[in-house]
């Protein structure tokens, strides 16, 4: 989908890239040819409309121009740039949990002992419904465990990416950032959102009408405005397009802090995480 137009391609992703590049070149060439033709016609009309002998031809060409379906210049999709700020170095263990049992009314897991060491990048995997999001929120103190102890290390400053935006969020993208960082100027907020690949239309739209990928970029932007030394990311790639996903991967590989990531995409994290925790080994559910 590009500029509100759906184009279907068949074949592999590599074939799509090849065909898409050809299509872009053809569209650019057609636009340039038409612009050259328009310029020639306008020049002829300007030179001949005042002369009695050529006025008829000038008027005829003007009518031709008026009826011409003018091609629009293809607009480039803004490319995002993600960069997470690093806070001061925390203690050796960023999170420690002992005999931790997750759940709400009933246990989702057996007792689990966890240690997340400073600077480590860990992916959390497992089928849906086993408590991955519950684990992240429990470790951050957002919800209480059924039992067990959790201890955050000294000087830990987390940045948390929620899987979905809050339902019924009436804020615009600008207001969403401003609400969190009231000291930022409007120029700074706009620049931060634009750096994440959002257009002026996105920036001034309400969160509830943005696409999943656009809303995800706003949530990532919020995290990037402050120094953190622990990134806790709940399926951040879910709605991102290929370019944004590649840029996020680059930024996370470059980040020097600790990462705890929930993802169903081994291709996204497989070459940069230090270890993978499989929650399927902890669950009380039958898989």
What does the model show?
It holds the Pfam family ABC_tran. One of its GO terms (molecular function) is ATP hydrolysis activity. Keywords: ATP-binding, Nucleotide-binding, Repeat. The chain is of the alpha/beta class and 287 residues long. It has 2 domains: 13-67; 93-281, Rossmann fold (3-Layer(aba) Sandwich), CATH 3.40.50.300. Helices cover 38% and strands 15% of the residues. The chain contains 9 helices and 8 strands. The protein has helices at residues 13-48, 55-67, 132-139, 173-180, 186-195, 200-203, 212-224, 242-254, 266-269; strands spanning 93-101, 112-117, 121-125, 147-152, 158-161, 230-234, 258-262, 275-278. It has a 5-stranded parallel sheet with strand order 5-6-7-3-8, sandwiched between helices. It has a 3-stranded antiparallel sheet with strand order 2-1-4, with no helix packed on it. α8 (242-254) links the parallel β6 and β7. α1 packs antiparallel against α2, α4 crosses α5 (186-195) and α4 runs parallel beside α7 (212-224). It starts with 12 loop residues before the first helix and ends in a 9-residue tail after the last strand. The model has no long low-confidence stretch (mean pLDDT 91).
Helix content: 25-40%
CATH second-level architecture of the largest domain: 3-Layer(aba) Sandwich
Using only C-alpha atoms, the radius of gyration works out to 27 Å
- Which superfamily, in CATH terms, is the homologous superfamily of the largest domain? P-loop containing nucleotide triphosphate hydrolases
Cross-sheet strand order for the largest sheet: 5-6-7-3-8
Number of helices, where a helix is a run of at least 4 consecutive DSSP H or I residues: 9
Can you give the mean pLDDT? Answer: 91
Number of strands: 8
What best-fitting shape do the alpha-carbon axes yield? elongated
* Cα end-to-end separation: 36 Å
Domain ABC transporter: 91-287
Keywords: ATP-binding, Nucleotide-binding, Repeat
Pfam families: ABC_tran, ABC_tran_Xtn
GO molecular function: ATP binding; ATP hydrolysis activity
